[in-house]
Amino acid sequence: MSNIDPLPSKRIRKIVEACKVWEMKYRPRYEEILKSKIWRQSFPKIKIGFREFAGYLQQKGEIRLEKLKKSRKDKIVLSIFIILLGIGAFLFFSEYPKARADKPAPMEEISLETVDPLNKIGKGLKADGSIRVCHKNNPPNPNAEREREIQSLVAGHPIENMIPYIAERDEKVSSFLVAIAKKESNWGKHTPKKKGKECYNFWGYRGKENTTDSGYSCFDSPEHAVKVVGDRIEKLVEKKVNTPERMVVWKCGSNCEVTGGQAAADKWIRDVAFYYKKLQS
């Protein structure tokens, strides 16, 4: 075989891309290959033209190029997958500790009275977790002593919920609020209702506020009740109706004979005076 250099692979790619240039440059070599002794001995019966020979090389070049493209595509896809997997892992492990920290631990149900004794007198913690009065930055409760005095008398009765509001009134008014409520409703155990709803009227008060069929005022809340009735008692005290004997007008109005007679009036005065004096210093 004549001394012919093998075709380099880069040249084969150029053959695929520019056949005319390839034909002009390599046709002499092609003709030398066909005339060589090795070719005639190995392929005596094969007749191949230049076009078929060029097509054969072109096909091999396209196959190799396709494999190269596929290999590169697979590597790109794999690289993207690895990058996305890394990002997902980073986000997961960075957020996972926070998620565990935010998860509340299970808690046993404990009554507010167990946690906070002030809840019994309408202070301290509320059911929603907020605080009524107690806070380290709040000033001391100026009515704390008065609240304890009233609490010692009315413990176990519905009027306990009104203690904070009653204790805010002056001494005479708060004393009458407690004493009259004992006489008229046993501190809230016998009260008027309206359509089955509690009216918080512990004093037998008859005013214009949402009256019941029997003429008693029906209040919206304990605070509202203490505000209206306390204001009425305060006006009477300012008019010198400032003793249980004079405060009997609460029961009798202008004529005690209409409301049970003098004996009933005297009994009212004694009962109210008993608790009124207990709350007077």
Tags for this model:
single chain; 281 residues; mainly alpha; Lysozyme; 56% helix; 2 domains; two-stranded antiparallel ribbon
Structure description:
- With 281 residues, this protein is mainly α.
- The chain folds into two domains: 9-102; 143-278, Lysozyme (Orthogonal Bundle), CATH 1.10.530.
- Helices cover 56% and strands 1% of the residues.
- It has helices at 9-17, 19-35, 37-42, 50-102, 112-115, 144-154, 163-166, 171-185, 222-238, 249-252, 261-278; strands at 193-194, 197-198.
- The chain has a two-stranded antiparallel sheet.
- A hairpin with a 2-residue loop joins strand 1 (193-194) and strand 2 (197-198).
- Helix 1 (9-17) crosses helix 4 (50-102).
- The model has no long low-confidence stretch (mean pLDDT 77).
